[in-house]
Every structure is written in structure tokens, then in C-alpha cells.
Write a structure and sequence with these properties.
This protein is of the alpha/beta class and about 170 residues long. It is built from 6 helices and 7 strands. The chain folds into 2 domains: about 45 residues, no CATH class; about 120 residues, Rossmann fold (3-Layer(aba) Sandwich), CATH 3.40.50.150. Strands 3, 4, 5, 6 and 7 form a 5-stranded mixed β-sheet that branches. The chain has a two-stranded parallel ribbon with strand order 1-2. Strand 3, helix 4 and strand 4 form a beta-alpha-beta unit.
Length: about 170
């Protein structure tokens, strides 16, 4: 089940998924989790009484604090069966190999196209995992989450965010 609020992404996904009864796209907004959970598309494909994986990959850094992303993630968690997993990645200034003022220039680009990029600290990102038991190695810079190659071989910019997986009790 893919959820997006961008009409272009939704239209493209519908074209890609055409004829695939085992997958679907929902035009909805993460900031309104109840609408997602109550949609006929989600109910058709996902049995929320059984463990599922919720992937919030490269999305929460586009949700402003004023829209309370923590409440949205909590509402989604509360709808999941025990044993469900949360997979999350999030951009952060922590680990960026630039001085803060230079790193801020990248964030300014998003502001200029009216798509905010909210850089949160590791501790702020960790709050999304409240109510989950973290899977090893925990919330770490993305290249350190079970790497296939040596993290020191990664592009230094790959460290400009965190990844983690949590399991509901």
C-alpha cells in the first residue's frame, strides 16, 4: 500500500500498479492518519489485526512541527497489531560534513520551492519510536544500519540522516 499526497506521484503509481491486485495507491496525507487507516484501499489490502510493516522512509522530514508529526505516528502505531514494525529514515544536520550555515543552504532550497525540509536532531527523531522496542543496531546514521559495505566507504553526505526499526510490543 503506497500513500502519497502528491497528485503526480499518485497518478504515476496508479499507472505502474495497474492490474496488480496485490498493491494499491492511496491519495492521502500522513498528517491525517485516520483517513489513511479508514480508507477502503488500506482495508482491502492490509489486515491491521496482524503484524505489518509501516515504512516512513524519507517522509517525516517534510512534515512541520506545527502539523504534529509525532501525533500522526502515534495514531498509526496505535492502529497496528503487536509485532508490527516501524521502518523510519529522517534527514538531520547531525553528521553532515559541513558547517551548519552551509548545510542550511540545502534546506533553504526546499523552502524556496514551498516544500519544507525539517532537519531534526537524533533525539527528536528518536521520539518517533516511542512505544516501540528498537531493533539492533538502534537509531543510527543511515550507513551504519546493517551495512553491506564498510561505512567509511560511504559518501560523507550519507551520514546526514538516521535510520531505525522498531517493533510494537
Amino acid at each position: 500500500m503506497y500513500v502519497d499526497h502528491d497528485p503526480v506521484a499518485v497518478a504515476h503509481s496508479r499507472a505502474v500498479l495497474e492490474g496488480n491486485d496485490g498493491a494499491d495507491i492511496l491519495a492521502a496525507d500522513l498528517r491525517k492518519p485516520r483517513e489513511i487507516l479508514n480508507s477502503s484501499e488500506v482495508r482491502r489490502l492490509i489486515d491491521l489485526n496482524r503484524p505489518v510493516a509501516l515504512l516512513l522512509v524519507a517522509i517525516l522530514h517534510f512534515v512541520e512541527d506545527a502539523d504534529d508529526p509525532y501525533a500522526a505516528v502515534t495514531e498509526l502505531r496505535e492502529a497496528l497489531a503487536p509485532g508490527s514494525m516501524l521502518v523510519l529514515t529522517h534527514a538531520s544536520y547531525d553528521g553532515v560534513p559541513l558547517p551548519p550555515e552551509r548545510a542550511g543552504e540545502a534546506v533553504d532550497v526546499y523552502q524556496s520551492i514551498r516544500n519544507p525540509l525539517i532537519m531534526r536532531t537524533r533525539d527528536e527523531i528518536a521520539r518517533f519510536f516511542e512505544g516501540y522496542d528498537m531493533v539492533e543496531p538502534g537509531l543510527v546514521p543511515m550507513p551504519q544500519w546493517r551495512p553491506d559495505t564498510a561505512p567509511e566507504d560511504e559518501d560523507p553526505y550519507a551520514f546526514s540522516g538516521f535510520a531505525g526499526v522498531g517493533r510494537t510490543a
